[in-house]
Each structure stands twice: as structure tokens, then as C-alpha cells.
Design a protein that fits this description.
- There is one protein chain.
- By secondary structure, this protein is of the alpha/beta class.
- Helices cover about 35% and strands about 25% of the residues.
- The protein has helices spanning about 50-55, 80-85, 105-115, 120-135, 150-165, 180-200, 210-215, 235-240, 245-255, 260-270, 295-300, and strands spanning about 5-20, 20-35, 40, 65-70, 70-75, 90, 170-175, 200-205, 220-225, 225-235, 305, 310.
- Helix 5 runs parallel beside helix 6 (about 180-200).
- The chain is globular and about 65 Å long.
């Protein structure tokens, strides 16, 4: 493992039991993430993005595989041993109000994270709350407000301030801008980018929208029914998309660059994502793929190297 690798995920899998059947939510996913870099995770709803994010943070236990964070294999650590590492790994959600107590003011919510982790004194923590609010672009008096008094964009900034309060090394951003207006999305993404540079943060940035992950990501992994079907450095993925599914995702953002709802609609035109409880044979994407051959219907494709650091799991790639 090179010295600046912060996170190494190796062959991680998670199966849920649903109504007596096995649902493979995440299947054999591997990647590495360097300090100060962003991995974008993209795929339609139900492709396993949130499950993967939670596995990485050990908010969920994996069935197979391991997660090495900052040199420690955290997959087998006991709860108590995990506690000190928790500070270094934070998460930001699509709906920040869901993770904020409605009866706590914004200031109390941010301070609370520091109290739980026994950081600082009352005075130093209060000063830090003001500093963090300012850093995420909110007026200081927002600390007296309750979550319901804030807009979606303001709440997401509070969620970011709360995550930052512990000086983490890694933040999993799970669809952090998906519920926001497009103009606000751009501001929040820019803030995340500035904070990354300032604090050398690593991000796993999750979105169903490839256009959203593009700006932040150094590397992008495309998930389909729990598996990474293509992965490459971000520029390379956009210049040379090799899996038909990635090309569908790309077309949908190129054709309708402005309106996120329209983009979603374009995606659904290609047919619905199959149920992970009953995945298609062969290549899981074959029922929706305009290039599918008989081979695709029966044999699962191996990963093929397209270029340095770029692979696609597709029979049509040679
Ligand atoms: N706790 C759970 N129990 C059963 N199934 C789950 C659970 N969490 C997620 N799933 C299923 O796992 C699959 C992946 O879900 P998720 O990771 O939330 O996808 P995404 O974030 O890409 O929308 C979905 O089919 C979802 O229904
Ligand atoms: Mg999700």
C-alpha cells in the first residue's frame, strides 16, 4: 500500500436476506483512495451506493472482504476499538435534517459531536462552532436557529460543519446535493472542493448523477446492481466511456445539461433497473443493453483493462 493511501477496500460484499431470498446489495467491490482525493460513486437508485458507503465506515458489517483505513484493518475491529477511528470518518446525507435533532439548536448540534468525542472545553468548542459556521458560509447567529428554520442549502452547510468539527480524514458524501436546487448544488459542491483543499480531506462522493460527481472526482466507479462495472480516472471515464451503461449515464447528462429531473427521465427511458432479488443471467445489464449478444445473456463478463487504471466489465470491450 503506497504511503498516501488512506483507504483500501478489498473484495467487499454485502448480502441482505429479504423474504427468504438473498439480495446482493454490494458484490466484490475493491478500490483505493488517497489522502486529499475523491472517489465518485455513481449508479441508479438501488445500485448499492449507500450500502457501500456504510460498509466503508463500518456503520454496517460486511459479509466478505476488508477495509483498511489509515493503515488499520477496521473490518474486524471491535466496537470499542472503532470508537477512536470514528472521528476520522464522517458522513453527510442527502437529507441533513434527518441526522439533526429537531430540538437542538444548530450550535448545540455541532457542539454535541465534539462533546460525544470528548474534544475540547466548553469555551473552545463554542468558539469552534462559530469558526465552523463561518467557514461553511453561514452567519454566526445561525447557531441559535433550529433545523426547521433553515433552508435545505443552509442545513446541508450545517451538516458539513458538524462533520468537519471532528477534523476527519474521510467524509462519505451520500447524495449531499440531490435534494437541492441546481444553483445551490453548485455552491455546496464548490464548498466541499474548497474544504478538501484546505484540510486535505478524502471524499467518497455518491450521486445518481454523473454530472454532479464529475467536478469533484479524481476517480469514478460506476455501480450497477451492486457491482462496479467500470472504473477509471474521471477524465479518462468521460473521454473513453467503455461500458454501455456508463455511456447511457453520460448521454443522459450531455443531452439535457440543465434539468436534473429530465436527466432522471432520460435514464428511465432505457428501462427500469432489474430487481437485485432476481438479477439477470450473464451480464446483469444485458436486458437493457442495445449491444447485447447471446454471450452477454449467459456468461458474466470479466473485468477488462481498457487503459492504465481503467477497467470495464463488458464482453464487448477487447
Ligand atoms: N437494510 C436492508 N435490508 C434489505 N435490503 C436492503 C437494505 N439496505 C439496502 N437494501 C437493498 O440493497 C440494494 C442497494 O440499496 P442502496 O445501497 O440503498 O442503493 P443506492 O444507495 O444506490 O440507492 C437495494 O435493492 C435496497 O433495497
Ligand atoms: Mg442511496
Amino acid at each position: 500500500m503506497p504511503t498516501d493511501t488512506l483507504l483500501q477496500v478489498e473484495h467487499i460484499s454485502k448480502t441482505f436476506r429479504v423474504g427468504g431470498k438473498s439480495l446482493h446489495a454490494v458484490e466484490n467491490v475493491s478500490f483505493a483512495l488517497e489522502a486529499g482525493k475523491t472517489l465518485g460513486l455513481v449508479g441508479e437508485s438501488g445500485s448499492g451506493k449507500s450500502t457501500l458507503g456504510r460498509l466503508v465506515l463500518r456503520l454496517l458489517d460486511s459479509d466478505k472482504g476488508k477495509v483498511v483505513f489509515d493503515g488499520t484493518d477496521i473490518s474486524r475491529l471491535k466496537k470499542k476499538e472503532l470508537r477512536s477511528l470514528r472521528r476520522d470518518m464522517q458522513i453527510i446525507f442527502q437529507d441533513p435534517s434527518a441526522s439533526l435533532n429537531p430540538r437542538m439548536t444548530v450550535g448545540e448540534a455541532i457542539e454535541d459531536a465534539m462533546i460525544i468525542h470528548k474534544i475540547g472545553t466548553k469555551e473552545s468548542n463554542r468558539a469552534r462552532v462559530s469558526e465552523l459556521l463561518q467557514r461553511v458560509g453561514l452567519p454566526e447567529n445561525v447557531k441559535y436557529a433550529y433545523p426547521h428554520e433553515l433552508s435545505g442549502g443552509q442545513l446541508q452547510r450545517v451538516g458539513i460543519a458538524r462533520a468537519l468539527s471532528l477534523n476527519p480524514k474521510l467524509i462519505v458524501c451520500d447524495e449531499p446535493v440531490s435534494a437541492l436546487d441546481v444553483s445551490i448544488q453548485v455552491q455546496v459542491i464548490q464548498l466541499l472542493k474548497d474544504l478538501q483543499e484546505e484540510y486535505n480531506l478524502s471524499y467518497i462522493f455518491i450521486s445518481h448523477n454523473l454530472a454532479v460527481v464529475e467536478y469533484l472526482s479524481d476517480e469514478i466507479a460506476v455501480l450497477y446492481l451492486g457491482e462496479v462495472v467500470e472504473q477509471a480516472p474521471a477524465d479518462e471515464l468521460f473521454q473513453n466511456p467503455s461500458h454501455p451503461y456508463t455511456r447511457v449515464l453520460l448521454q443522459s447528462i450531455l443531452n439535457v445539461p440543465e434539468n436534473p429531473e429530465l436527466k432522471q427521465e432520460m435514464l428511465s427511458i432505457q428501462g427500469e433497473i432489474p430487481s437485485p432479488l432476481n438479477p439477470p443471467s450473464g451480464c446483469a445489464f444485458h436486458p437493457r443493453c442495445t449491444h447485447a449478444t447471446d454471450l452477454c445473456k449467459t456468461v458474466k463478463p470479466e473485468r477488462k483493462n481498457v487503459a492504465e487504471g481503467h477497467f470495464a466489465a463488458c464482453h464487448l470491450v477487447d
